[in-house]
Structure formats: structure tokens, C-alpha cells
């Protein structure tokens, strides 16, 4: 069995501890096939495995952002959302256009992660995307958009935002 096959088998069939140890050991790989396997664990049923995959991608000091950006089109909403956050935490400014595209995702979780990632990256070019999310039907997306508008310094976006939600009102009052 090749090393890659062994990695795949452990990530697919191993115990939680075996999966966690494997993901930890892969945090410095630059092999695109292995990175894709790590990315797929962002959709694991176990939150600890998802967290370990997130950490492995975040802590990887290799230039893997292009591989991660390509995975933003993954079928899993967990993968799309968490990758937006990984890219933001890696300060991958080249990923901003791809993250902006995620504010139109069908999943509210992905939209929330994407707009939050744009705020973290202080993506001034994402003002329109953030403004769009301020009117999102999902309250968590709207909260993320408010935080992002504040983070990028576009508080003028918030002037017309109204809400009955106490948390949103508190966020808006803190800006005034």
C-alpha cells in the first residue's frame, strides 16, 4: 500500500485519534492530492476532525492557497464555508474575488462565512457584496455583514440598516 493510499484509508476508516494524528502530521504537505483529502475532512461528521483539518490547512506554511481556492466550488457547504475562513485566516488576499462569489451561495452558513472572511481580510473591494448581505433573509448573514462593514471601515453602509433583533441593534449602536 502506497503512502497516499495509507493516508486515504486512515482519513476514511480510521479511529478519531488516528484521523486526528494523521491530519496533524500532514500540516506541512504541499501535495495537492493530500491537500484535497484534508479539505474533504472539513465535511467530516465529527467536529474535532473538522477542526483538525481546519488547523492543518491554516498552519500549513506552504503556498497552498490556489489549491484551496479551487476547492471553494466543492459540493459540501461545510467545505465551502470553512475554506473561506481558512483563506481569510491565511491572509490570502488573492482569494477575495472567489470569496466574494460565495455571498450568492444557496447556503446561509456559506454566505455568513464568506462575508465574515471578507471583513477579516479588510476587503474594501467587497463593499457591494457586504451591502448585499446586509439585506440577506438570514439573520446570521446580516450580523456577519455588519461586523464586516465595521471591519473594513464602511460604516456608511450601516446607516439604513434597521432591525428588531437586540444583538443587531446593539452592534449598530456601537458604531454610532
UniProtKB/TrEMBL annotation:
GO molecular function: oxidoreductase activity
Signal peptide: none
SMART domains: EZ_HEAT
Record-linked InterPro entries: ARM-like, ARM-type_fold, PBS_lyase_HEAT
Coiled coil: none
Record's protein name: PBS lyase HEAT domain protein repeat-containing protein
Natural source organism: Candidatus Nitrosotenuis uzonensis
Lineage: Archaea, Nitrososphaerota, Candidatus Nitrosotenuis
